[in-house]
Amino acid sequence: MFRKLVSNLAFSPALVGQLGFYARRLRKEETTRRAGLVFLALALVVQSFAVFTPPQSANAANADNVIYSGIRNKDDLLAIYDRGSDSAGRNDIKEIYTQFGISRADIANMHVGSYNTGDFNGQLKSVGRSDWGVSFRSPVQVANTTTTVFTGGFTETYGKSWPMPALIGTRSVDGAWFAITLNCGNPVYVVPPPPVKKPVAACTSLAIISLNRTTVRLTAQASSADGATIDGYTYTVKNAKGTPVFNQRTTTTTLDYKAPSDGTYTAQVTANTSLGDRTDAGCIKAFTVSPEPRCVLNSGLTESSPDCQPCPNDKTLWYKDAKCTAKFQLSKSVRNITQSLTDANNTQAKPGDQLQYTLSVRNTGNAPGSYTMTDTVADILEYATIVNMGDGNIVTPDATTPAVVTWPSTSIKPGETLEKFIVVRVKETIPAMAANASNPQSFNCKVTNTFGNTLNVNIECPPEKVVEQTVAELPHTGASENIIFSAVVVAVAVYFYARSRQTATEIRLIRRDLNAGTI
């Protein structure tokens, strides 16, 4: 058809549309053929599984199976063994294998093989959950479970032998041959395993050792055998009323316990074992916490109280006793550095002299204390300036506050002395300021300073201050003094006025007599 269309294309160009449609149909058919080829290959792969994978029984599960539906290989068996249950939820599989001397290590060392039910001269015994309805299968109670299994020979039942796929191994407990059948998980053996010893565990003793007045060390001992294990210890402490005041589980055999108060206590330890909790009369002991001694310095306190402390400077006193306090003794000295005078008290300083004042605070009490030194220097600053005051800080004076030098608060121990100093320089030009009317000590040519004791240093003042000091004050006058003074002045004035009038009269009379010729 395609060739026919191509050959007629020159005579009928309209056939191009049909040619395109036919080309698209060919491509779709090609895709369909390829998809069919892929599905054919997949079908062959699926058929290969049916050829190479052996068939499994459609009736694999049986009430006699130790493992429901059996196992496929060793890894499958180990997974079920470690999980502790099979697909039916039965959790006694590990105990069944243990009952017949098979351990996990024995399973891990097995290999895939088979056995014949007639092997070992027909002495093979199989273990299952069913008695098969025969009398020769013996019941066996599985330890630590409520499960009963049955064991018996193959040939006694069927009288013939047949091959069975299985895991083949050797028991480590006695070196005997055994197998586990794949399609049921049932153990098969020739020689019965050694008797299974019953695991035992017990708490054997509890020892109590006193570490201090309130703390004891509890030491437990426990024993286990034949597969039982000790998983931990639970310590319980009860007070004298039998009320539990402490309960703790630990994996260690020792535990330190601190009682909350004085009294008698009973300690009990319980061994937590794989067989359950175990205790015994030997694991119960009593101990007593005696009252704490009282503080010697203060009977109202216990010996361990943080307030039971002696006075630092008198060990016989309690540190909060009224007598255990700090007492500070203040003193001050002055020396003239310029004139090399060690004691410049009551001496005269000249302009430019440097004076060093040393302030001392001695703690004469029984306890340390903090003291903040302050020194009023207002009188000093009238005639001198401060050139050094160590770590002191001067507070600038104002109209209401005199100049004060302060130092940081410092702790002073009993018997210790704290010293600070101030160095001043006397002004080169001594002020001639008159003494203050309200404060005679101000600008009085003397520097007075008090810190515990009082120091005076005289200043060489200018002459006008000497006159001020010599004539201390003007005459005191009042109303009566003024009247008397005025009367005296008036009397003197009247006297001289009368005397001058008298003299004038006498002169006039003489002139008259002289002119009259009587003289």
Write up what this structure looks like.
With 519 residues, the protein is of the alpha+beta class. It has five domains: 1-28, no CATH class; 74-189, no CATH class; 200-289, Immunoglobulins (Immunoglobulin-like, Sandwich); 292-324, no CATH class; 328-470, Sandwich (Immunoglobulin-like), CATH 2.60.40. 23% of the residues lie in helices and 33% in strands. The protein starts with a helix and ends with a helix.
Keywords:
519 residues, alpha+beta, Immunoglobulin-like, seven-stranded antiparallel β-sheet, five-stranded antiparallel β-sheet, 9 helices, 29 strands, 23% helix, elongated
Question: SSE layout and pairings?
Answer:
Blueprint: H1 2-7, H2 15-52, H3 74-83, H4 93-99, H5 104-108, E1 111-116, H6 119-122, E2 125-128, E3 138-141, E4 148-153, H7 155-158, E5 163-170, E6 177-181, E7 187-189, E8 200-210, E9 215-225, E10 230-238, E11 244-250, E12 254-258, E13 263-273, E14 276-278, E15 284-289, E16 310-311, E17 314-318, E18 328-336, E19 348-349, E20 354-363, E21 369-371, E22 374-376, E23 384-388, E24 393-395, E25 404-406, E26 410-412, E27 417-426, E28 446-451, E29 453-459, H8 463-470, H9 479-516
Parallel strand pairs: 19-29
Antiparallel strand pairs: 1-5, 2-4, 2-7, 3-4, 5-6, 6-7, 8-9, 9-12, 10-11, 10-13, 13-14, 13-15, 16-17, 18-20, 20-27, 21-26, 22-25, 23-27, 24-25, 28-29
